[in-house]
Inverse folding.
């Protein structure tokens, strides 16, 4: 369970599954519904057994120190859903996440995705609308929805 995600799902009457479902078909279909925002992004995709979070933190800091606008999508949440999607080191705001949910609802994504896939789409959508230079993704498992970028 991702803290505070259910509040957004309830507010927007949005359905998603809190289980893990291997495969990429659902995320690919959902991304196509929102015009594949990931294709407009430069992405650094971090995978492996250990050290993904610290690697992302160092890359984010180095990129920002060199003037890059950055977006990070990572899991699990440290405090709540907001810290999983960061823009220039700051968690996504309630207003920004509400806007993204409105857009995903309008695209008809309710009921298509798991919670993790839903947040992956939310991150890509927010990153592309923010016009970020570089995005860093932390892969949670071998076939998670961030693997769509590999």
């Amino acid at each position: 369970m991702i803290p505070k995600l259910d509040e957004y799902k309830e507010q927007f009457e949005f359905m998603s599954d809190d289980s893990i479902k291997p495969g990429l078909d659902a995320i690919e279909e959902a991304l196509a519904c929102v015009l594949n925002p990931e294709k407009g992004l430069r992405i650094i995709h971090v995978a492996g057994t250990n050290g993904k979070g610290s690697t992302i933190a160092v890359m984010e800091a180095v990129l920002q120190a060199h003037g890059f606008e950055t977006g990070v999508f990572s899991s699990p949440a440290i405090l709540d859903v907001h810290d999983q999607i960061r823009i220039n080191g700051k968690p996504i705001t309630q207003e920004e996440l509400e806007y993204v949910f409105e857009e995903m609802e309008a695209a008809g994504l309710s009921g298509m995705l798991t919670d993790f896939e839903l947040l992956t789409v939310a991150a890509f959508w927010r990153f592309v609308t923010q016009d970020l230079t570089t995005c860093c993704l932390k892969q949670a498992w071998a076939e998670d929805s961030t693997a769509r970028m590999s």
Summary: The beta strands are 43-46, 70-73, 85-87, 90-91, 134-138. The CA atoms of residues 51 and 107 lie 35 Å apart. The mean pLDDT is 91. The radius of gyration is 14 Å.
